[in-house]
Design a protein that fits this description.
- The complex is a heterodimer of chains A (680) and B (449).
- Among the domains of chain A are: 97 residues; 75 residues, no CATH class; 94 residues, no CATH class.
- Chain A is mainly alpha-helical and 680 residues long.
- In chain A, α14 packs parallel to α16, α24 runs antiparallel to α25 and α28 runs antiparallel to α29.
- In chain A, 65% of the residues lie in helices and 0% in strands.
- Chain A has 38 helices and no strands.
- The relative contact order of chain A is 0.05.
- With 449 residues, chain B is of the alpha+beta class.
- Chain B folds into 4 domains: 127 residues, Beta-Lactamase; 43 residues, no CATH class; 143 residues, Sandwich (Immunoglobulin-like); 109 residues, Mu homology domain, subdomain B (Immunoglobulin-like), CATH 2.60.40.
- In chain B, the strands form 5 sheets. Chain B has a 10-stranded mixed β-sheet, with no helix packed on it. Chain B has a 5-stranded antiparallel β-sheet with strand order 2-1-5-4-3, sandwiched between helices.
- In chain B, 19% of the residues lie in helices and 41% in strands.
- In chain B, a hairpin with a 2-residue loop joins β3 and β4.
- The chains are: A mainly alpha (680), B alpha+beta (449).
- Chain A: It comes from [Candida] jaroonii.
- Chain A: This is AP-2 complex subunit beta.
- Chain B: It comes from [Candida] jaroonii.
């Protein structure tokens, strides 16, 4: 029979009347069940007015019928707090049900008692929970475990004071695997619940080994909970960590992606206690890799989660995973967020061996109909060229190829990318600039404009820079600050190279920068340049040239590392929501408990990444310069040069250096982009 | 884990809601409606969902779309997203077993059952057991898979699971060590149906070179078996290599089938597989996926397609395609379809083929070349030409050239070369009838040009 017609908003008075009607029959059960379906419908559509039915629902508990009682108990747990004085009338029933023969009813009862926060019910729950935890039926014990977790959420001190956690701990040795896994998850939720309490699950290794060995016979969900709880297993020796890894490996073969990801999490966790596990178990990287890749046959959402975790592993545990980059190429009909993530992974996987395949594939994306995708692909070219020296010529060649059509967004994106490439490899790809500049007319975005203007200033001798610059900067007043700053700096560069030609125009530009524009930064910069070029000491414009026309600090292959501590915590959270955002867990979820590695004799220290160091000198150099500059006037020229290099690092190249902030930043930006809005 | 679960229809009306834990209220559904459903409807294109997860403050929504409906899990703080997603999909599966099609009408017509099922499969936010057998043991009135039961009866075999017993007994059976199979199943005739289903994914470039090819395969099994039979299952005898697993190494024999990875149903004893390479299991009753696998090397490609697409001037595009079937000549492929994309604004089109029919679909800008049946070892050619309107011709330069797509089904053919060697039930006097079927389908078979 179809229940569709019962799925309507009903007034409690109507339901009451129908109930009265039903009571008149000699066998009211059938009729009552239909009425209860209406009640359920109103629960679903959140019609709180039915809370008035509380006395009637309690009254219905006297029917010895599990179906009727099931609905009534569910109703009780939802609406008792609307009228506590009436609700207590249900207590005699709830007490009596504990003796009932039907396990389902007993389980429902403890669940209901525990979920009502009224004092009388809380008292009852503490009176009976122990009996339920020791019930002869495992199904009841499962419900009781969760009921205890719920009670803990309601009143943690009382649970602790009455020593109830010990009773729950005892269930870890239950004969039924299902009960054990539920006890584990109940304990897990108790630990997670209150950050301030120092609760920790300590596991007995032998017990757990037995548990894992036999867990495959219980449900897939039990397997998840048991595997997850292994994060509490602290290996004291490398051998015990390895034994456990061996034990977990078969789970990578499971069809349930949650089991696979949890197994990966535990294996990565245990690898912290082994020195180079990939050398001891040579097949490990391959197995982890192919097991993750095969999850890409799952639905889109799961793919996305898996891909984000692949990024996480590539950032922190490259040595533990092995992927074939072709398997991560985008499919034409992948969801946009899957494509995005795959692109990120392709970039991370690119190396000296595979870059030509990667570049050809990126080219395919760059000509994709999806504009966002095409842009990202072009940006990936730039990053690839900067990361791998040998790949740069090929990347530039492809970029040249695709901009020849003059499609606006491609040119715009390419401008930004090429600027980075010519900065990374000065003098190598100057020809490409000429091709790019031909298309300057289609550029209108602030980012690309800044890049283009920088290029014009830097290569002012090679083409009609001035005409183009003038054309671009016609409407300087409406431009964004970055573009205005770029125009200013580019003009000064041109002036210093060709003082006679550009004297008047330079003055014009300085005038608007210092007088017409209201932005203090721009004015400041304008005055700064003005004073610099008007200083008359010794050689003409020597100082100004030394400051402005210098080699730019070379941008390095960007630093692919998230802070190791953040990575360490994220690795303990593989497969969780935080792994999607790839941000420090506490930043996204302030309620969550901080997870960290427990020290033990076997714990290996994380290897320091060398690339981190490369970025720092520029910064420290600048600091040193600023302080010493005033003292040692003599060395000022040299110092100034480096001052400029860092100064220009934040001025005309601010775009560039922003772009090159660590991948971590870009990732987190991406992640916040995904959500759109972060707060209500 | 999961604080609440909702089902919305396409407009954002709540069809189902179940709260598992304190921390959220039922009206949290409004937030989802406004943040996701409405903004998604505004976009007008349901494909453009940016991410399947939305986090606002400490509350996260993890959601999928099932047809026009949204199935949403609400959760607080940092939770195991993989478990939640697996749960949502398994729950969707339960719905599929209950109703023919997941739509608003069917959900409403079964709302009471669905609500009760939700109440039992998850406790305190943790998924407990989503096996139909378990649900039935607790909710004897649930109609999961009922349709299949009827079909079974008409097959002549009888299926006995006594519901009249006191529910406790059934419950104990459901909770026995093997959670996916109730005891006391009896069939008059023991039958096993095995389907090896493969999806082949291929990507070729302009020069018809294979850029990527791999097979996603799965072995579906339907069992009508009495008692608690322990099955042993063997593939390709000796020449099966599973990469990355210890044991037999690839000796360079090109005939061997190399599986990159395989995943098994929960009934398979994974440690036995790892140690002895034996697939051993006690199957659940009815239909399930025994394993899925992934294969990348030595694939038998069923077709070779070469495509030449040239632009003449700004208004003409010419196509030359050939398709060659590479499978054995006695095998046949059905529903072969080649979808050839054309630019926007086609004014005139012309096509001639040596075999098969062509039809132009202006609404999708696609020319379809179709064969009802194609035998192996044949080659056919198509030449076609389209002429564009002047306006669109000017935009031809921006034509993105989406790949040509190939669709087909081939029965009794496996691209990976995988074959079932044996399926044994080691039990005296246990007679079974076994059926094995192979089929290959196109997954994403893209030809760039």
């Amino acid at each position: 029979m179809s229940d569709g017609k019962l799925f309507i908003k009903t007034k409690s008075s109507e339901i009451k009347a129908e109930l009265d009607q039903a009571y008149k029959k000699s066998k009211p059960h059938g009729k009552i069940k239909i009425i209860l379906k209406k009640v359920t419908a109103n629960i679903i559509i959140n019609n709180n007015e039915i809370s008035r039915l509380l006395p009637d629902m309690i009254n219905l508990l006297r029917f010895d019928d599990i179906e009727i009682r099931r609905v009534c108990l569910d109703y009780l747990s939802l609406y008792s707090h609307y009228d506590p004085t009436v609700a207590v009338k249900s207590l005699p029933f709830l007490r009596r049900f504990r003796e009932d023969n039907d396990a389902v009813l007993r389980a429902l009862t403890i669940k209901t008692i525990a979920s009502i926060g009224l004092p009388e019910f809380v008292d009852l729950s503490f009176q009976v929970i122990r009996l339920y935890l020791k019930d002869k039926n495992s199904f009841v014990r499962i419900s009781a475990s969760f009921a205890l977790a719920r009670m803990f959420h309601n009143d943690s001190t009382r649970v602790l004071n009455e020593g109830l956690l010990t009773d729950l701990n005892e269930l870890l040795y239950d004969d039924d695997q299902g009960v054990v896994s539920v006890a584990l998850s109940a304990l897990d939720s108790i630990i997670e619940f209150d950050k301030s309490l120092d609760l920790k699950l300590t596991v007995n290794p032998d017990h757990f080994i037995q548990l894992v060995k036999h867990i495959h016979k219980s449900t897939e969900w039990s397997q998840i909970y048991v595997i997850n709880s292994l994060l509490s297993f602290v290996p004291t020796t490398t051998e015990s960590a390895l034994d456990m890894i061996e034990l977990i490996l078969p789970f990578l073969q499971h069809e349930n992606s949650a089991i696979v990801l949890n197994a990966v999490k535990v294996i990565v966790y245990l690898s912290n206690y082994v020195n180079n596990p990939q050398l001891i178990i040579p097949t490990l990287p391959k197995r982890l890799g192919s097991s993750l890749v095969s999850l890409l046959a799952k639905p889109t959402e799961i793919q996305f989660l898996v891909l984000r975790n692949i990024i996480l592993l590539l950032l922190g545990r490259k040595e533990l995973v092995e992927f074939n980059v072709e398997m991560l190429f985008c499919k034409y009909d992948d969801a946009i967020y899957v494509k995005d993530t795959k692109l990120e992974i392709i970039y991370l996987l690119a190396n000296e061996e595979n870059f030509s395949i990667v570049a050809r594939e990126l080219e395919e994306y760059a000509t994709d109909v999806d504009v966002a995708m095409a842009r990202k692909a072009i940006r990936a070219f730039g990053n690839l060229a900067v990361k791998l020296h040998n790949a740069a010529p090929l990347c530039v060649e492809i970029i040249m190829d695709i901009i020849s059509n003059g499609v606006s967004y491609i040119v715009q994106e390419s401008a930004v990318v090429l600027r980075n490439i010519v900065r990374r490899y000065p003098g190598q790809f100057d020809d490409s600039i000429i091709e790019l500049v031909k298309h300057y007319k289609v550029i209108d975005e602030s980012d690309s404009k800044t890049a283009m203007i920088w290029i014009l200033g830097q290569y002012c001798g090679q083409f009609d820079s001035w005409d183009i610059l003038k054309d671009i900067s016609k409407s300087y007043r409406d431009e964004s600050l970055e573009v205005q700053l770029a125009i200013l700096t580019a003009t000064i560069k041109m002036y210093l190279n060709y003082p006679t030609e550009y004297e008047t125009t330079t003055l014009e530009v300085l005038k608007w920068a210092t007088e017409e524009v209201d932005n203090p930064d721009l004015r400041e910069r304008g005055f700064f340049y003005w004073r610099l070029i008007s200083s008359e000491n010794n050689e003409f414009q020597k100082v100004a040239k030394d400051v402005v026309l210098v080699d730019n600090p070379i941008i390095n292959s960007e630093n692919e590392n998230i802070n190791p501590q953040v990575l360490e915590e994220l690795e303990l959270n593989i497969g969780t929501l935080a792994s999607i955002y790839l941000k420090p867990v506490s930043q996204v979820f302030r309620l969550s408990r901080h997870k960290k590695l427990t020290p033990s004799p076997a714990l290996q220290s994380r290897k320091k990444k060398t690339t981190v160091v490369e970025e720092t000198p520029v910064y420290s150099n600048r600091k040193a310069t600023l302080s010493t500059d005033q003292i040692h006037r003599k060395k000022s020229i040299m110092r100034q040069a480096s001052f400029d290099s860092s100064f220009s690092g934040i001025s005309d190249d601010s775009q560039g250096s922003n772009k090159i902030t660590g991948l971590a930043n870009r990732l987190s930006r991406r992640a916040s982009m995904i959500t759109g809005k972060k707060k209500f | 884990m999961i604080s609440g679960l909702f089902i919305f229809d396409g407009k954002g009306d709540v069809l189902m809601s179940k709260i598992y834990k304190e921390g959220i209220k039922r009206n949290v559904s409004d937030v989802f409606r406004i943040q996701v459903i409405n903004s998604n409807n505004k976009l007008g294109n349901s494909k453009e969902v940016r991410s399947p997860i939305l986090t606002l403050g400490s509350t996260s929504f993890v959601y999928i779309k099932s047809g026009k409906l949204w199935i949403v899990a609400v959760t607080r703080s940092n939770q195991d997203c993989s478990t939640i997603l697996e749960f949502i999909y398994k729950f969707e599966n339960i719905l599929k077993m209950m109703v023919a099609e997941i739509n608003d009408e069917n959900i409403i017509n079964n709302f009471f059952q669905i609500y009760q099922i939700l109440d039992e499969i998850v406790q305190f936010g943790y998924p407990i057991n989503l096996e139909p057998g378990y649900i039935k043991s607790i909710l004897p009135n649930a109609t999961i898979g009922e349709t299949k039961l009827i079909r079974r009866k008409s097959n002549g075999s009888s299926y006995v699971l006594n519901h009249n017993n006191k529910s406790n007994e059934i419950l104990n059976k459901a909770l026995s060590t093997i959670t996916w199979r109730p005891q006391g199943i009896k069939y008059r005739r023991n039958e096993i149906f095995l389907n090896v289903e493969e999806k082949i994914n291929v990507l070729t470039n302009e020069q018809s070179e294979i850029l990527r090819s791999y097979v996603d395969g799965k072995i579906m099994m339907k069992t009508h078996l009495s008692g608690m039979p322990e099955c042993k299952f063997g593939l390709n005898n000796d020449d099966l290599v599973l990469n990355g697993l210890p044991g037999k190494e690839n000796d360079g024999n090109s005939d061997s089938v190399v599986l990159e990875d395989c995943k098994f149903h929960q009934c398979v004893e994974l440690d036995k597989f790892t140690e002895q390479r034996v697939i051993q299991f006690i199957p659940p009753d009815g239909e399930f996926q025994l394993m899925s696998y992934n294969c990348r090397s030595s694939i038998n490609l069923p077709f070779k397609v070469t495509a030449q697409v040239q632009q003449f001037g700004s208004r003409k595009v010419q196509y030359k395609l050939s398709i060659k079937s590479l499978f054995p000549s006695k095998t046949s492929s059905t529903n072969v379809q080649i979808k050839i994309p054309t630019p926007n604004g086609v004014l005139k089109h012309y096509a001639s083929t040596t075999h098969g029919k062509t039809k132009f679909h202006p609404e999708d800008n696609v020319l379809v070349w179709k064969f009802n049946k194609m035998f192996g070892d044949n080659e056919y050619v198509l030449t076609a030409e389209v002429e564009l309107t002047e306006l669109e011709g000017n935009r031809l330069i921006n034509w993105s050239r989406p790949p040509i797509k190939l669709d087909f089904v081939i029965d009794m053919f496996s691209c990976s070369g995988l074959s079932v060697n044996y399926l044994r039930i080691d039990k005296a006097n246990y007679k079974t009838v076994k059926w094995v079927k192979y089929s290959t389908q196109s997954g994403s078979y893209d030809i760039r040009y």
